[in-house]
Write a structure and sequence with these properties.
The two termini are about 45 Å apart. Helices cover about 15% and strands about 35% of the residues. It has about 700 residues and is an alpha+beta fold.
Length: about 700
């Protein structure tokens, strides 16, 4: 309550000085008072904010405002007409997630602004200040002189206080499948990443970065900027001023409409988020993004159960089989699906994904007009959908549906209800959707307002049919999984498949130690771990997975998703003792502990499985071998656990000897300390089972 008192005190002092003098400054602090946000108006009435962490400025004075089509900008000549405050401290339950309960505690400040001219247009700015960061958004109230709002630019600034070390991908309007670059802010050059040969679609119009973008100051403070609750709005990239060291919102546009966002008042924008942490690990701990979303609108999601899955997918990337039947080596056959069902059933794996099951795959890649190509109801004649589903149910396994839209949105919209109804009739509760290719209609991009609405509406409609959605080539995750828990996971990064065919050698060992502190802050990732045949023999002579087997196991704990694929071929799992970890590892967690980590270097995470009390640990490193001391004080005191440790062999190395693995079993307790020996590109995975 001290922070709220400070707000009232500041406003009260201003009124005491002169009841006729305008209030131009107001502030709000986090519940623990470590973070402070001050709001002010400049001499010309421009709205500005500033963020402090303790006594240090994190975001210096930064302007707020909009440019609108055919009318004057909404960015100056404001006066404060009213301020209100609120404090919230509540706890909500995740139906599935990294932890069972989430504390949502913040202090809130709303500033109501009005222009001084004749039109007197109104704009509200709302700040929510948490112990782990700040969220703020704009509210456009219903008003006489601003009914339809056509935004050509949102000019939200983030004025940095130094040339921070930054982990970034370019502000691509179509895809997030870029490798991360590590550089100073002054050296960010997103345009150098344009025209990447391995991407099915890409458009990078200017020097901007996508979010989450994570930085570390010279003093060691960690900052990550993103957005929350992206609804009926365009995705935000951040334009980089390399000289003045500032970032500014640059919304994804549309060549079809020549504006960024079109809305009718009243409406709110997504939250602009700034996560702030003294330790890198605290960024992963933060629940700022989900907390800034509304509570669940779905009364019941018990029909979705977090699960591991196998599937007909990796073999197509290897070239062993094909998505299309005409190629002569069709992967999605009844026989092949049954083989994966049998394997899953005997290995504690509850799902099987089947890609290439439906007609249309012969004419999707490389075709300009892809409308009408895919049929989301009709299987190829060598795939008996009803029989596969029947067989799976008999074995206690659920089929995961696959809808590749080829970014032909009109075709998918027309068939969506029938496709979801088919799933409901068959008792299929999960779908992996894909959006490969340039968006049709031409002129729209994957991350613009039009597609944001499509992605969200597809998921909302899916809930009506008791279907959970795992989207690939998606819009970024912004915490909507809280509001619509059937949004279970998504791609939205450079995934495992790049290791199978990318001309640049695949994902380097530093990739995932960066992802854990960048993309994973946004939400669950369907990364498809579990590749045991690291060298991809005999299918790919010039490609490989750039990790050890032990790291592939550790990813089941480190890279969070409520669905986790055992992605390799059946023959590469059979007889391998490392498969036991995949059999055992959980996918739904009661609590999560981030034990250590530095961005791009290493990270160790332990998670407690719901309902069992068993713990699992994953630790991964970049191209450097490491020794990490890990106390097990997260375990229940006075309790003995059987720890099965899957660790890199003595001579293991991501390139020279990636399959060397040792498996050790020992009894441990909360007083035990382990020294993890991680090989270059390696890892350690541990199961802790109560004795």
């Amino acid at each position: 309550m001290k922070s709220v008192f400070k707000i009232f005190l500041l406003v009260g002092i201003c009124c005491f000085i002169s009841c006729t003098e305008e209030v131009k400054n107001v502030a709000v602090s986090s519940p623990n008072e470590a973070l402070n946000v001050s709001f002010s108006l400049s001499e010309n009435g421009t709205a500005r904010y500033k963020v402090l962490h303790k006594t240090k400025t994190v975001i210096d004075t930064s302007a707020l405002g909009f440019e609108l089509k055919d009318v004057a900008p909404l960015d100056r000549n404001f006066k404060i007409v009213k301020t209100t405050t609120n404090s919230v401290d509540e706890t909500w339950n995740m139906p599935w997630g990294e932890q069972e309960t989430v504390r949502n505690q913040y202090n809130e400040l709303t500033i109501e602004l009005q222009e001084k001219d004749a039109l007197q247009r109104k704009l509200n700015i709302v700040f929510k200040v948490y112990d782990d960061g700040v969220g703020f958004r704009y509210e456009f109230p219903e008003q006489e002189h601003l009914k339809e709002v056509i935004i050509t630019d949102e000019n939200t600034q983030f004025q940095l206080t130094g040339d921070h070390k930054t982990w970034w991908i370019p502000g691509d309007w179509d895809i997030y499948e870029h490798l991360y670059t590590t550089s100073k802010v002054s050296k960010i050059d997103a345009l150098s990443k344009a025209n990447h040969g391995s991407l099915a679609q890409t458009y990078i119009p200017e020097n901007a970065v996508n979010t989450p973008v994570t930085m570390r100051t010279a003093a060691g403070l960690h900052i990550s900027i993103h957005e929350a609750a992206l609804i009926d709005y365009s995705g935000m990239t951040l334009k980089v001023d390399t000289k003045n060291l500032s970032l500014q919102s640059e919304l994804v546009g549309s060549k079809r409409t020549n504006y960024k966002v079109k809305r009718t008042t009243p409406f709110t924008t997504p939250w602009r988020t700034i996560q702030i942490a003294e330790k890198a690990t605290e960024l992963i701990d933060s629940k700022l993004i989900v907390n800034l979303n509304e509570p669940s609108k779905l009364k019941d999601v018990s029909w979705f159960t977090p699960m591991k899955y196998t599937g007909i997918w990796w073999e197509m990337h290897l070239g062993k089989s094909s998505w299309d039947k005409a190629a002569g080596k069709h992967g999605a056959t009844t026989e092949n699906a049954k083989a994966f069902i049998d394997f899953s059933a005997k290995n504690n794996i509850k799902g099987v994904l089947v890609e290439g099951w439906n007609t249309g795959w012969e004419h999707w890649i490389g075709f300009e007009d892809r409308e009408g190509v895919f049929d989301f109801i009709t299987p190829y004649d060598d795939y008996d959908l009803q029989e596969v589903v029947r067989y799976a149910k008999e074995k206690g396994v659920e089929i995961i549906m696959h809808h590749e839209t080829s970014a032909a949105i009109g075709t998918y919209n027309k068939q969506m209800d029938k496709a979801y109804q088919l799933m409901k009739d068959l008792g299929i509760h999960s779908v992996k959707s894909g959006y490969v290719g340039k968006i049709i209609p031409k002129g729209e991009y994957h991350h613009g307002q039009w597609m944001v609405n499509h992605y969200n509406n597809a998921a909302i409609k899916a809930a009506d049919y008791e279907v959970a959605v795992n989207a690939h080539e998606p819009i970024k995750a912004t915490g909507l999984r809280r509001t619509y828990p059937n949004i279970i996971s998504r791609e939205g990064l450079r995934g495992q498949e790049f290791n199978a065919w990318a001309a640049d050698g695949g994902n380097p060992p530093e990739h995932l130690p960066i992802v854990a502190f960048t993309r994973m802050l946004a939400g669950p990732i369907d990364y498809t771990p579990g590749i045991f045949n690291i060298k991809l023999t005999p299918y790919k002579e010039n490609n490989q997975v750039n990790t050890t087997i032990a790291q592939q196991l550790a990813l089941y704990v480190v890279i969070y998703s409520p669905i986790q694929m055992a992605a390799d071929l059946i023959e590469n799992y059979e007889g391998n003792p490392a498969l036991q970890f995949i059999r055992d590892v959980g996918v739904d967690w009661k609590q999560t502990k981030v034990l250590n980590g530095e961005i791009g270097d290493f990270v160790t995470i332990a998670r407690e499985e719901r309902n069992t009390g068993n713990w699992f640990l994953g630790s991964i490193t970049d191209e450097n071998a490491r020794e990490l001391a890990v106390p097990l004080d997260f375990l229940v005191p006075n309790t003995t656990y059987v720890a099965t440790i899957y660790k890199d062999g003595k001579d293991a190395h991501w390139n020279d000897n990636p399959t060397a693995i040792e498996i050790q079993t020992m009894e441990v307790s909360s007083e035990t300390k382990l020294n993890l020996q991680l090989a270059a590109g390696g890892g350690t995975a541990i199961s802790f089972i109560k004795k």
